[in-house]
Amino acid sequence: MSLNDPLKIGLLFSATGNTAPIEQSQLRGALQAIDEINSKGGAGGRQLLPVHYDPACDARLFGVLAERLYTEDGVNVIFGGYTSTSRKAILPVVEKHNRLLFYPQQYEGFEFSEHIIYGGASPNQNCLQLAEYMTETFGARVYMVGSRYIYPYECNRNMQELILQNPTGAIVGERYLDLAAARDEFALVIDDIRRKQPDFIFSTVIGATCAFLYQAYAEAGLDPGRMPIGSLNTSETEIFLMGAGLAQGHVTSAPYFQSVDTPHNAIALDGFWGRYGNTLSTDMNWEAAYYQVHLFALAFDAVGLDDFDPLISELRGLEYDAPQGRVRIDARNQHTALNPKIGRADANGQFEILRGSRHMVPPDPYMVNQEQGDWVTKLSSTER
């Protein structure tokens, strides 16, 4: 292969299925970054050539298509996966072939593979901040609602441990619904919430059913000013799909919102709107895919190879000025140091940023040293 030949990279983001709208946001971030890199001469002088497949939100297909990318398409590096189930389906394939996966999604933590670069928030970069904000502002009695799979189970366990650090902390209810649950099932959950009157609701409901929870909440006449939904995954994209009015007043903890006021976000948004128009929003999923592709290009520029050993050595400790602020791949655990924030949804489907970190928060995916009030993860307030 000539050094001038295009450099193939694999993209596994679903175009169909329950979480497809979110995975399409990830795809937009990856493709935008590829365009930006190629317009400046490529990575190491080579144009990036995306090879994209639609796994249709099927965990088995994520593994099958990863195998195809590595063995048939000549790809060494894949960007993809949204659910933890999809990541775990790709993991044995990347390890078997000694290749690399960039996973651009926040997740429940408690995992490490040297063959994965974890780009989204670890639990000490979103769950911890949400627990602190919600208990300080509303109280420590929480009702947990999630989708029925790994990520919600483990996130709720993380949240429970944090809530119970509070002397008044209590889990007053915990319900899980199928990823294909019907809308009326959420009305039954909201009925139970209204009876038990928690201080806030912690939602790990994902995909198309996310809207059903917020719809049932609004139809029940509940007040987000008194008992809001707090989430780690409800982003601008979910709000666009459900309608801005349904999410107004509810809270999300994430390292990125479209409303982030940084020079690098302004530049990235200009590129986004130029490519996709101004009807779509960016979100935390778009941003993670966007900066992970840029980090890969920086590493490839330095080593000139996409083989696993030289590439992973260069990636460890690498930094990039992402839209959220500066980020860094942790050299020990290959998760990413990020800039946590608390946002409250407004009437336009965007987020007012209520609190933000003073500096990059190092990832602690195993929550070894974390507790509420820790100086490392404490957020400064921008509330008025």
TrEMBL record:
Protein's name in the database: Amino acid ABC substrate-binding protein
InterPro entries tied to this protein: AmiC_PBP1, Leu_Ile_Val-bd, Peripla_BP_I
Alphabetized PANTHER family for the sequence: ALIPHATIC AMIDASE EXPRESSION-REGULATING PROTEIN, PTHR47628
Top-level taxon of the source organism: Bacteria
Organism of origin: Comamonas thiooxydans
UniProt lineage: Bacteria, Pseudomonadati, Pseudomonadota, Betaproteobacteria, Burkholderiales
GO molecular function per UniProt: amide binding
Any single GO BP term: amino acid transport
